[in-house]
Amino acid sequence: MENQKAIDNPEPAPETASSKGFSLDWRVAVAVVAVLGLGVLLYPLFQSNPAESPATVSAPASAQAGSSETAGEANSAQAQFELGNQYYAVGQWSEAQTAYQRAIELNPEYQGAYANLGVTYYQQQKFDLAAAQYQKALELNPQDGEVAYNLGALYLQQALSEGGGLPDPQLLDQAVAQLQQALELSPDLAEPYFTLGVAYFFQNQTAEAIAAFEQFKSLNPDESSQAEQEADRYLQQLRPE
Questions:
Q1: Chain mean position to CA 22
Q2: For residues 26 and 19, what is the distance between their CA atoms, to the nearest angstrom?
Q3: Global pTM value
Q4: pLDDT tens digits, 160-204
Q5: Cα–Cα nearest to 226, from 8, 44, 17
Q6: Which of 72, 88, 134, 194 could form a disulfide with 151 if both were Cys (CB 3.0 to 4.6 A apart)?
């Protein structure tokens, strides 16, 4: 199950003069940025058809006036899904949301449309709505490890951003359980290990966090990525001198 990871524009981590003595607020900020970065790397979940990825579709205008598609073809669930992908690729979240919703209206069993609709809600920070779409996508395909990961990363994002400066322990537990499920489904997927390491970090489970970050580093193909740098920062914090 090789899905596209084409959109990669994470915010830079806060600059610091030293890797020692960080406050909790700084660590939370880094965690939020890093989790968001990984979320963007994995989103949207373009399904197995290569024609559905933003690398191979044209600009949204191709689905509007002047298109060679017939009205019936343009109004199919597949066409609306692809249109949503095109809008997503250029950052037009509201238009993408409308297209995915239309795809679902035309085909209520379109699992990829639910997953990508969740992505657009995530990008708009409508986390509860995003979670509902991921959950529906998992109902349609319980074996989809990447959707399971997205849901776990979303729970962690909520735990770190909705805790009033401290991570929400209940959401942290929920994130860990969901990420563990994702790894049961897709043990060779790198991203869940990083996100799980962050969750363990804030649960003060040092050994588990170290193991998760090291496993992420062993699977991550891009050693120069921001996620790789963040994993090293966490490991520096976790390992005794």
A1: 26
A2: 11
A3: 0.74
A4: 887 566 788 999 999 999 999 999 999 999 989 999 999 999 999
A5: 8
A6: 134
